[in-house]
Amino acid sequence: MSEQEIFDGVQEIFRTVFDDDEIVLTREMTADDIEDWDSLEQINLLVAIEKKFSIKFKLEDVKNLPNVGAMLDLVKRLAG
Amino acid sequence: MPYTYLITGATSDVGAALIRRVWKPGDIILAQGANDLDRLDGVRELCGDALHCYNVDLTGEESLTAFIEEIRRDFGCPTHIVHLPALRVINTKFRNFDEQRFLLDFNVQVLSALRICKAFLPGMMKAKFGRLLFMLTDYIIGVPPKNTTAYIVAKNALRGLARSLATEAAPSGVTVNCVAPYMMETRFLQDTPDLIVEASAAANPMGRNARVEDVVPAMAFLLSDEAGFISGAELPVTGGAKY
């Protein structure tokens, strides 16, 4: 799966979870950049990503993700 | 004195464990499930003919009415009523609130409890003895989590019923109590992603989710004779996460 496909898929999930079609992801983006992005929504994002890409996160891998870039890299590593 | 336990949602992990915990020879167990009574096969080995199972759809009024009438005809008034059933929690934003699904859950959790209590509480009060116990959730303590409106509304309605009945029944010696457990690792969670279950465990001060064996003894206590002066309680079983 290409980086672009992963990026597009994750961006679509962000737009759905936060109900905002204008979200444009950047690798540097963090929870500070989206008002509703709290720990619960983080879990919702990750669960939606697991489902979309048929992958399984481990809690220890995702609890300290610093930004969207780290999230995308993790998805790429797991989705291959 | 032998007791008659009416347990709705008895086929749940908690229900089956509770029967094992409280049943003693002479007691009668009236166990309701919905298309899953085989889950009580193990309990039957313990209780034998004392276990009476009922396949009842609690979303419908007719089936519930027939169930209540059958109980009344065959066993009179139970001494203990334990109400456990709920549909699985849907985690979704309020804008996606599904009213039909909510009403089904409301029927299962609240209206069925209300109708069962209406049918049997007067008899318990007349007998000057009875125990009612409802399954709540620690979501009702303090600030509820986001995206669980349907579940929170139904559980708080059930809580309101318990509190109201506790007040009304107290003079007759009938107690009405609730347990409010932390996320419990049972079949109820089978549709919940592992990540959510693991995150819940990690967020608990004791580092884990609740287990059936944490909750059932608390329930057994509230149902016991010695808990006769405890009514209107909502007992948190949360590992210190909420209280």
Tally of DSSP helical segments of chain B: 7
CATH superfamily annotation of chain A: ACP-like
How big is the Rg of chain A? Answer: 11 Å
- The total domain count of chain A is 1
Q: Roughly how many Å is the radius of gyration of chain B? A: 17 Å
Structural class of chain B: alpha/beta
How does the overall form of chain A come out from the CA principal axes?
globular
Major sheet description of chain A: none
Number of continuous helical runs of chain A:
4
Tell me the fraction of residues in β-strands of chain A, as a range.
Answer: under 5%
Residues in helices of chain A, as a percent range: 55-70%
Please specify the SSE layout and strand pairing.
The complex is a heterodimer of chains A (80) and B (243).
Chain A: H1 3-17, H2 39-53, H3 59-62, H4 68-79
Helix pairs in contact in A: 1-2
Chain B: E1 4-8, H1 13-22, E2 28-33, H2 41-47, E3 51-55, H3 61-75, E4 80-83, H4 99-127, E5 130-135, H5 149-169, E6 174-181, H6 194-203, H7 212-223, E7 234-237
Parallel strand pairs in B: 1-2, 1-4, 2-3, 4-5, 5-6, 6-7
Helix pairs in contact in B: 1-7, 3-4, 4-5
Q: Explain this structure to me?
A:
The complex is a heterodimer of chains A (about 80) and B (about 240). Chain A has about 80 residues and is mainly α. Chain A has one domain: ACP-like (Non-ribosomal Peptide Synthetase Peptidyl Carrier Protein, Chain A). In chain A, about 60% of the residues lie in helices and about 0% in strands. Chain A is built from four helices and no strands. The longest helix of chain A has 15 residues, at about 5-15. Chain B has about 240 residues and is an alpha/beta fold. Chain B has a single domain, classed as Rossmann fold. In chain B, strands 3-2-1-4-5-6-7 form a seven-stranded parallel beta sheet, sandwiched between helices. In chain B, α5 (about 150-170) links the parallel β5 and β6. Chain B is globular and about 45 Å long. The model of chain B has no long low-confidence stretch (mean pLDDT about 95). At the A-B interface, α2 of A face α6 of B.
